[in-house]
Amino acid sequence: MTTDPNLPTPGFSTRAIHGGQRPDPSTGAVMPPVYLNSTYAQEAPGIHKGYEYSRTANPTRDAMQANLASMEGGTDCIAFASGLAATHAVLGMLSAGDRIVLGHDVYGGTYRLVDKVMKRWGLRFRTVDTTDLDALRAALTEEETKLVWFESPTNPLLHVTDIAAACQIAREARALSVVDNTFATPYLQQPLDLGADLVVHSTTKYLGGHSDVVGGAVVTRHPALAGELKFIQNSAGAVPGPLDSFLVLRGAKTLVVRMERHCDNAEGIVDWLTSQPRIAKVFYPGLAEHPGHEVASRQMARYGGMVSFELDADLAAAHRFASATRLFTLAESLGGVESLLDHPATMTHASVPQEEREKSGFRDGLLRLSVGIEDLSDLVADLQRALDAAFA
Ligand SMILES: *Cc1c(COP(=O)(O)O)cnc(C)c1O
């Protein structure tokens, strides 16, 4: 698909499949070959077809990057070997002594990278609840800040930040705004349109979509930021391999149909959970009583495939629940076609001290679902079985 400025921008589903893609010029193959080569022949020194060395550029990676850029409405996508490698590259644009502001419930690995690695290199940071725009504004006015980083919805309580307002506050403070869009995906939410400077993804999750690849990406519309990130991608070299790039591209093409089903199933499970007296609380931005419901309705097409809930019970009951499902696999990660179940207090969020967990509002009875695309009735029956086991 070429970008002809005289034609209207194609719809999202069309971009997901054709954005940045063309048949392979040498064979007409409709999917790019997995170019498993490290180097490229040159006709004469410096005379080549645009490729010199696969850390710098690889055609399979280029096809995937162009596709993700098109989906997010960006001009450039710079891909990495993991979501955290993408995060590290963004932070690599900063210098010792710079200060950043992080959402207080960002992905644990993001916090660990900032707190345990980048801090040693002189990066300074503070966390703030970015759902509270006054708190964000105050955090940015107390000291010069280079960058604001947040997620929406967040993990595991699905807190929703007003992306347009938060990015506007960052812009007024001359700070770059970065939105980790892993949970929502570009199908449900496009932060660049809402004013974000950079969008970051763990392509390991919904974009890959099949729990078979680890990857990351940054998308932007700023030529200068794109240039700097490409320079870091090549200089630090945390690039995705050609097969990984192929798998992300292959997954991305079905994002739309998968997300529709993830959302349908999540809504069905939320309906069931809210009717169960032994479920104390359900966290889903699609619920009218969710504190971020109104903002989510404005900035998201639907409410996503992640659902969290709290059993009206103790840790032991939560463990019985988590061990009793047969379809929901007890595993970390999310965003694949298969349903997964997580007990954050002992799994994904075990490194967060209990007081911190309780401060951000989650208890030992909290369970998180990555709702897959199986038959809804089978998923509900599986949860019913686990609920019975928890209270047996
Ligand atoms: C998984 C995840 C990451 C990290 O990505 P990796 O691919 O595991 O390195 C970052 N942010 C969010 C929201 C994630 O879920």
Task: Give a written overview of the molecule.
Helix content is 37%, strand content 14%. It has 392 residues and is an alpha/beta fold. The chain has 2 domains: 12-253, Type I PLP-dependent aspartate aminotransferase-like (Major domain) (Aspartate Aminotransferase, domain 2, 3-Layer(aba) Sandwich), CATH 3.40.640.10; 255-390, Alpha-Beta Complex (Aspartate Aminotransferase, domain 1). It has a 7-stranded mixed β-sheet, sandwiched between helices. Strands 8-9-12-11-10 form a 5-stranded mixed β-sheet, covered by helices on one side. The mean pLDDT is 96. The structure holds pyridoxal-5'-phosphate. Residues 82-84, 107, 109-110, 151, 155, 180, 182-183, 202, 204-205, 214, 216 line the site of pyridoxal-5'-phosphate.
Compile the SSE list and pairings.
Blueprint: H1 12-18, H2 59-72, E1 76-80, H3 83-91, E2 99-103, H4 108-117, E3 124-128, H5 133-141, E4 147-151, H6 163-172, E5 176-180, H7 185-188, E6 198-202, E7 216-220, H8 223-236, H9 242-252, H10 255-274, E8 279-283, H11 293-299, E9 306-311, H12 315-324, E10 329-330, E11 340-342, H13 354-359, E12 366-370, H14 376-390
Parallel strand pairs: 2-3, 2-4, 4-5, 5-6, 10-11
Antiparallel strand pairs: 1-7, 6-7, 8-9, 9-12, 11-12
Helix pairs in contact: 1-2, 2-9, 3-4, 5-6, 12-14
The structure holds pyridoxal-5'-phosphate (PLP).
